[in-house]
Write a structure and sequence with these properties.
Blueprint lengths: L9 E7 L2 E6 L3 E4 L2 E3 L16 E12 L9 E2 L7 E7 L2 E12 L10 H11 L4 E13 L5 E4 L7 E5 L5 H16 L7 H4 L10 H20 L13 E7 L2 E7 L5 E4 L11 E3 L4 E3 L6 E3 L4 E3 L8 E2 L3
Parallel strand pairs: 4-11
Antiparallel strand pairs: 1-2, 2-3, 5-8, 5-9, 6-7, 7-8, 10-11, 12-13, 13-14, 14-19, 15-16, 16-17, 17-18
The chain binds flavin-adenine dinucleotide (FAD) and FE2/S2 (inorganic) cluster (FES).
FE2/S2 (inorganic) cluster binds next to loops.
Length: 312
């Protein structure tokens, strides 16, 4: 039995001597079966998940409401929607408020994200303390139904579970059952609904078109569009893409004016990144990879850090 080490990204799976070999940074793992449960699948070809899935970001705050809390989980019906649930923390019951959803890579504003959550918190719990803030992201398939089952007909014995659309705690159980049944060659009456190769997902023409248009813009057209800002216009604790010697450079100036310069091109498949001024990250509009202001890779499907420029 192989033991996986935490914090060791896998970057490729190939057949070597007729056995699947998963390549990680420091070692390889050989196995008869491979299950790719890495949030966004990291094998681009075959599978082509980048043509049929995008990521959505949302924001959370944890508050001490200074009041007795209700039990349960709630989602508001109105738009924009907010979710509410409790969490125990150091003997206290905190309230988690979620919302501010937007497609990853679309530059968000503070008021639409944390600002909106803080407004809701103060509206219902005026005396609350806001203790924590964070963001999360989710994979969304074209037809909003997860992709679970064979990764691709070209990779027998490789399985995937992804596209949980914010419901991964629940749907990962469905995925586990389907994959186990596939491996044991048992019939599973729900498997066809989640089949990753289903063509029916492409019937959602609007979502498919969105992915194509976004990819064309970020891969090609945005790269020819002039930068919107000059170096001097970038305020401290903010960032933007500028041009230096006809080359696009991603600049972030920290609160003290220290400069971080990166090549603003995603290391996944080469789309142009956009600056996220709320989280101080470089985000990819194509499939949702994210990098911190210094270029370090934070979230998949990209695995590598951004190229760094030395401006001296
Ligand atoms: C506050 C909050 C509340 C939620 N509430 C609910 C709820 O009530 N019900 C519900 O159903 N869902 C809920 N969700 C959503 C749910 O948590 C997610 O949908 C789920 O965690 C997604 O599971 P995943 O396995 O696809 O990805 P992840 O949980 O992100 O797991 C992927 C793992 O793969 C690893 N990985 C990534 N790339 C690689 C690589 N290249 N090599 C090796 N390892 C890699 C990552 O480090 C990570 O450990 C909630 C989420 C949040 C943030
Ligand atoms: S995430 Fe795919 S190109 Fe950036």
């Amino acid at each position: 039995m192989e033991i996986f080490l935490l914090g060791t990204p896998a970057f490729d799976v190939q057949k070597v001597d007729d056995v699947y070999t998963t390549f990680c940074s420091d070692f390889t793992v050989r196995s008869k079966y491979v299950i790719v449960a890495t949030h966004y699948p990291f094998i681009n070809f075959p599978g082509f998940y980048f043509t049929k899935m995008y990521q959505s970001s949302s924001y959370l705050i944890a508050i001490d409401p200074k009041k007795t809390l209700f039990n349960g989980m709630y989602i508001s019906a109105a738009e924009p929607s907010f979710s509410f649930r409790t969490a125990n923390y150091q003997g206290k019951k905190l309230l988690l408020i979620g919302g501010g959803e937007h497609k990853t890579g679309e530059p968000p504003s503070y008021q639409y994200t944390y600002g909106a959550l803080e407004d809701v918190a103060k509206k219902y719990y005026p005396d609350c303390d806001i203790l924590f803030r964070w963001d999360t992201r989710d994979c969304i398939s074209l037809d909003k139904i997860p992709y679970v089952g064979h990764y691709s007909s070209l990779m027998p014995h490789v399985f995937v579970g992804t596209g949980f659309k914010k419901w991964g705690m629940t749907l990962s159980n469905v995925a586990a059952n389907i994959v186990v049944d596939e491996i044991l060659q048992k019939e599973n009456r729900f498997a066809y609904l989640f089949n990753p190769s289903r063509l029916s997902a492409f019937k959602n023409k609007d979502e498919f078109k969105n992915i194509l248009v976004q990819s064309a813009n970020s891969l090609v057209f945005d790269k020819f569009r002039p930068a919107q800002m000059s170096f001097d216009e970038i305020a401290n604790n903010s960032g933007s893409i500028i041009e230096i010697n006809n080359q696009k450079v991603g600049i972030y100036k920290d609160p003290n004016g220290k400069i971080f310069a990166v090549k603003p091109i995603c290391t996944h498949l080469g789309c142009q990144l956009s600056w996220n001024d709320v989280d101080k990250t470089w985000d990819c509009p194509c499939h949702g990879s994210r990098f911190d202001f210094s270029g370090k890779n934070l979230y998949d499907p990209a695995i590598k850090d951004l190229e760094i420029y030395d401006l001296d």
